[in-house]
Amino acid sequence: MVWAIVAVVLTAMALVLLANVLAVRATLRPPRTPMFLSPREMGIPYQQVAFPTRDGLRLHGWWLPAKDAIGIAILCHGYLMNRCEPLPVARELWHAGFHCLVFDFRASGKSQGDLCTIGDKERLDVISAVDFVTQTAPGLPVVVYGASMGGASALLAAAEDPRIQAVVADSAYARLDVAVDDWWRNSTGRLGALLLKPTKWIGALVTRKLPHTVSPEAVIHQIAPRPVLIVHGTRDQLIQPHHAERLFRSAGEPKSIWWAEGSEHVQARFDHPEQFFPLIVQFFKQSIGIDEPSSK
Predict the structure, then answer these.
(1) Is the dihedral angle over the CA atoms 82, 85, 89, 92 positive or is it negative?
(2) Distance CA 121, CA 66 (A)
(3) For the chain (length 296 residues), average pLDDT per consecutive 10?
(4) Domain ranges of the chain
(5) DSSP state letter for 239
(6) 69 Cβ partners below 8 Å, 6+ apart?
(7) pTM, to two decimals
(8) Contact 94, 66 (CB under 8 A)
(9) Which of 218, 40, 267 is nearest to 119 (CA)?
(10) Considering only CA atoms, which of 87, 68, 69 is closest in space to residue 77?
(11) Rounded Cα gap, residues 189 and 169, in angstroms
(12) With 274 labelled, which of 13, 89, 241, 284 sits at a CA distance of 20 to 30 A?
């Protein structure tokens, strides 16, 4: 009888461990979302580009050249997405006079790599994108918009790279381990989240990075005195609003936060376009010293 109970317990533990391993594999090696939008469909001229990362991968993207450009905007997509996702934001910034680079993070879209680290190594992709745009259009100020994982990556990159003059973080997490706990609790319930706790340690073995150390809130103060704008939906269940509160509390001045009332994850642009797009454009223009509306 005792041995039967032990066998059942060991089997259950093995099944839980297997479930955690499979969950980590599915999370860190996700399927690539097909392209679903292009600059051509939006009436924007563009060039196919590719550039290397500092750790040896090759990333692919679209360069949207603006006439008489006032600056350069790099736009970073979220987890499970690709360069198509931030194109509506790029369109508004392009019309405002910014060259724009939209690109695929590693292990996404057409870029190389097969491991997504949900923000850690992706920060290197952002820095490598800055390398590319400053060589392509030298002398112009560089700003970065990021959605979800892209927002976290942008904050991490800006804390390291002073060439980034301003950041908009849309629906970004404050700390990866907290975000993981939130994701599992929201998708599987409290019991599921408890059983999936080991994913953080298994994931650390795969990425060689403890998730609590992937922490935009720990470094966001290093961006100051460059401005940061945090955008977040009040009904975001994937990255809950407390992440935005933590980021804002940790940021140095100048900082601002805009709550998209009633919006879920990365939905502010669809729910409140009349507020969202002018806010982003004006924030970036002011960050590079242009206060008056562009005449372009």
Answers:
(1) positive
(2) 29
(3) 64 78 93 96 97 97 97 98 98 98 98 97 98 98 98 98 98 97 88 87 94 98 98 97 98 98 98 98 97 50
(4) 1-30+179-210, 41-175+214-287
(5) S
(6) 97, 98, 99, 137, 140
(7) 0.94
(8) yes
(9) 218
(10) 87
(11) 28
(12) 241
